[in-house]
Amino acid sequence: MNAEVITIGDEILIGQTVDTNSAWIAEELHLRGIRLNRIITISDAPDEITQAVDESFSRVDLVLMTGGLGPTQDDVTKYTLAEYFNTELVMNESIRSEIESWFKSRGRPFLESNSKQAELPKDADILRNSRGTAQGMWFEKDGKVLISMPGVPYEMKGILRDGGFEKLEQFFKTTPIIHKTVLTQGIGESFLAKKISDWETSLRDDGYFLAYLPSPGLVRLRISGYAENGNAEKVEAEIAEYIAELERRVPEYVFGRGKETIAQVVGKLFQEKGKTLSAAESCTGGYIAHLITSIPGSSLHFMGSAVTYSNDAKQEILGVKKESIESDGAVSEDVVVQMAEGAQKKFQSDYAISTSGVAGPDGGSDEKPVGTIWVAIAGPKKTVAKKYNFGGSRSRNITISALTALNWLRNEFLSRELE
Amino acid sequence: MNAEVITIGDEILIGQTVDTNSAWIAEELHLRGIRLNRIITISDAPDEITQAVDESFSRVDLVLMTGGLGPTQDDVTKYTLAEYFNTELVMNESIRSEIESWFKSRGRPFLESNSKQAELPKDADILRNSRGTAQGMWFEKDGKVLISMPGVPYEMKGILRDGGFEKLEQFFKTTPIIHKTVLTQGIGESFLAKKISDWETSLRDDGYFLAYLPSPGLVRLRISGYAENGNAEKVEAEIAEYIAELERRVPEYVFGRGKETIAQVVGKLFQEKGKTLSAAESCTGGYIAHLITSIPGSSLHFMGSAVTYSNDAKQEILGVKKESIESDGAVSEDVVVQMAEGAQKKFQSDYAISTSGVAGPDGGSDEKPVGTIWVAIAGPKKTVAKKYNFGGSRSRNITISALTALNWLRNEFLSRELE
Fold this sequence. Notes:
By secondary structure, chain A is an alpha/beta fold. Chain A contains 16 helices and 17 strands.
C-alpha cells in the first residue's frame, strides 16, 4: 500500500515555513504500514494542483493533501479539487451553523468569507474539523482516494486522529501496526546496539522491527510489529515483555516511554514519594530549571534553582568556600559538591542537583577542556559527584549536561543510596 | 528564473527526519531572485532519481539535490547521476588525499569505502566540501544545471556558501537581491503593520518588498530590494535609511537585526557600559537565565538567576517579606519588586530583572487568570514593575514573558531612568 503527500504552500516554496506536516503524516502512515512514495510541495495554483494530483494518482492509490483551504481568494484548492473530481460546491447548513457558533464563542464577527468555508463538494465525504473552519474532504475516484486538509498543523492532525486514519484503515484494509517507544539516556546509539545485540536479534527473529532514533543526549528505541488476524493482544504482550526485558538489562539508561520527558519522569518519582528537589546550576545556566518548570504541576516538588554564574554568587547564595574556588577552580568536585549541599540547605529540599563545567567555546584548558562537566547530587544523607567529558558545542554541552544530570538523579533516587 | 529541489531520503519518507534543508535552500534562492517551483522528496533508488530529474528538467532549468551521497552501498545517487549525465566516475587524487588527512586528523581509520568518496564524475565540476567526505557536484546538460550535495545540513550549507551560490549567480546571471532583517518585540504583526502603514507604503512605492515573519513573542521584518545595474550601494543606502526611520518611529519595539537574539543585544549593551545583571525568576522558571547563558561570553555581565519556585525560597534567598506573599499573593507588584531588589542585592549586580506569574494550565483565578505575569526591573536608583496578560499555553507564556522582560530591560537600560 503506497501513498503520496502533496503540500500546498507558497510560504514553504520561499522558505518562510518549514514543512513539518509531511514528516508527521509520513510517520503516522509508516506506523500503519502505508509507504510514502513521494512528498511534493507545490504552489496554490489550479494547474499545479491538477497536474500534481494526476501524477500522484498515476503512481499510488492514496494522496494526502494539506494547505490551500483558507477563506481568502488566493486559496484555490477546494475549487480546483471540486472540478477535478467532477462535483459541485453546495452549502452545508450544519457546518455553516457550526462555524457561526465557533466565531460567536470567540466573540469574533462572522463574515461572508467565513460562511464560504461551509460550501463543500457534494460528492466528497466531510472529515470534520473541530479546531478551525476549513473542513477535511475525502474524495474517491476509481478506487483511489484523495484527502484534502487545512495546513494548520493542529487542525490537520485533529482531522486525521478524529476519524481520518480510521476511515483510511477501513477503506484500504491496512494491517494495523503496533508500536511502542522506549526512551534511553546516557549511552550512544552504537554502544547501546552492541550491549543489546542478542536482545535485538531475538526481537527481529520474532518478526518485530526496531528503529534507533537519536537526538542530543537521548536515544529513542521504537519497536513495531504487525497485528494481523486479530492477534493484537498477543503482539502487545510480546512487545511489553521485550520492553520489560530491556528495562531489566539496562535500567540505568531506560528512563521512560512514548512522549515522556526525563524531567517529567523525575517529577513523578519525587511527587510519588513526597520528596522535594532543588538545583544549583553553573554551566547549565538555568536549563535544568527550565526543563523541570516546563512541566505543569512541577511546583509541587521543585523548589527552585540557584543559577550561580559568578563565583561571588556561588559563595554568597550557596555558601561555597572561597578557598575551594581559589585552589581547585569553579569546575571541580569540591565546588560542585558544595553547590549541591548549599542549594539543598537554602531551598530546604530533600535532594539537590548541581552542575559546574566548561560549556565553551572559550574557557577550556589542557586540564579542563571544553565539555568537562562536574555534576553532584546531594541526598538526605550523602552527596555524590561525577565528572563527564562531552566535548561538543556550547548548546550541545548545555543540553547533554542537563539530561545526564537528570538521569543520574533518577538512578540515585531509585537506588535510595543517598537516604 | 525557476528551480526545483529534490531531496533524497528514506528517513524523510518514513517521518524519522524533518526535511529542513529544503526550507533553507528555498529561502536562500528566494533571496537571490530564484523562484522554487516544487520541492520533491523521493527515495534513494535509481529509477526514482532518474524519473524525478527528468520531470524537473521538463519544468525548470535548475535542480538542487540533497542526500544519497553516503559511502554505503544503499547510496546510489552518485552512480545514477553519472549515468544520467553520460559520464564516468574517476578517482580524484587530490580529493582522495584530502579525505585521507581528514580521517587522520580525527584519529579514525581510513577505509576502502571512504576512498570511494573520492571517485567523482569526470564531466562534473566539483564543489568542494571542507566539512565532510561527500563532495558537491555540478552537472550541466543543454544549458540546464543540477547540483548534487550531501544531506547533512551544515555540509550542504557550507558547499553552497563556499562557492555554490556564486557559481549559480554567475551561470544564470541572476539579479542580486539585497535583504535586511529587523527584529521587533512587544507588538503583534497586525498592530505593527497598522502603526507603520505609511512607512510600508512608501517602502513599497520605492520598489522594495516587505515580509512579516512572526514567531511567539517576536516579529521579524524582512526588507528586500533588487540590486540591478550596479546600483547595489544605492539600494543598501536606501534600505538602511528605511531601517533608521523605523528605529526612530518605534524604538521600543526594534531591538536588533539579522540573526541577533534579544539576550545577545542586552548582553552587548551591558558589557559596553560595564554593567552587570542578575535575575529572579518564578513563572519563567530559569528560561531567562537559559536565554542569557546560551550566549558565549555571557559570564562577563550575567551574575546569575535565583529561580525561586517556592514561596519559602522567595523569602529565604531573595528576602521577600512573608506578609507580602500572604496579603497580595506571589503574583503581585509588591512581591515581584522585592524579588528584583533581592536578586540585585544577593548577586551584587547593577540591574536585576524578575518575573512572577501564572504560566498555566492550572493556578489561574478570576482575578489572576492564566497568562497574568508581573515583571520588575531594579536599577541602580529605582525599581519599576509592570503587569502583562498573555493568556496562552504554558510554553507560550514562558517564552513570551522572558522575551518581553528582556526587551523591557533593554528599553529601561537605554533610557537610563533607573540610574
